[in-house]
Amino acid sequence: MLNTKRTMWIELRWEDAVIVERDGDSLRIRHPELKRPRWFNPSHAGNYYSRYTGAGADTFADGYIFKGYPR
């Protein structure tokens, strides 16, 4: 049986974000709700997300998402 995790997404606002580094399409973003800047990757839906799966026995994964991309 495949061990899958459900992700508990927390949506963040671009208005409060600062992009501190770029690596290709990935962005390292500082945000007041994050303890430190995190890397965010683009999704096929056009959003940017960062997901931490934790230990193998954990049922849930933590995730942050920015909807769309600031123009």
Please provide a written account of the structure.
This protein is an all-beta fold. The protein has one domain. It is built from no helices and six strands. It has strands at residues 6-12, 18-23, 26-30, 38-42, 48-52, 60-66. It has a six-stranded mixed β-sheet with strand order 1-6-5-4-3-2, with no helix packed on it. The protein starts with 5 loop residues before the first strand and ends in a 5-residue tail after the last strand. The model has no long low-confidence stretch (mean pLDDT 86).
User: Total domains, how many?
Assistant: 1
Strands of the largest sheet, in order across it? 1-6-5-4-3-2
Taking all residues together, what is the mean pLDDT?
86
Radius of gyration: 13 Å
The geometry reads as globular
Strand segment count: 6
Amount of beta strand = over 45%
> Helix- and strand-based class?
mainly beta
- Helix segment count? 0
Order of helix and strand elements from N to C terminus: EEEEEE
User: CA-to-CA gap between the ends?
Assistant: 43 Å
Percentage of helical residues?
under 10%
Main beta-sheet annotation:
6 strands, mixed
Low-confidence segments, ≥5 residues, pLDDT <50? none
Give a quick precis of the structure.
The protein has 71 residues and is mainly β.
List the defining traits of the structure above:
about 70 residues, mainly beta
Topology of this structure?
Layout: E1 6-12, E2 18-23, E3 26-30, E4 38-42, E5 48-52, E6 60-66
Parallel strand pairs: 1-6
Antiparallel strand pairs: 2-3, 3-4, 4-5, 5-6
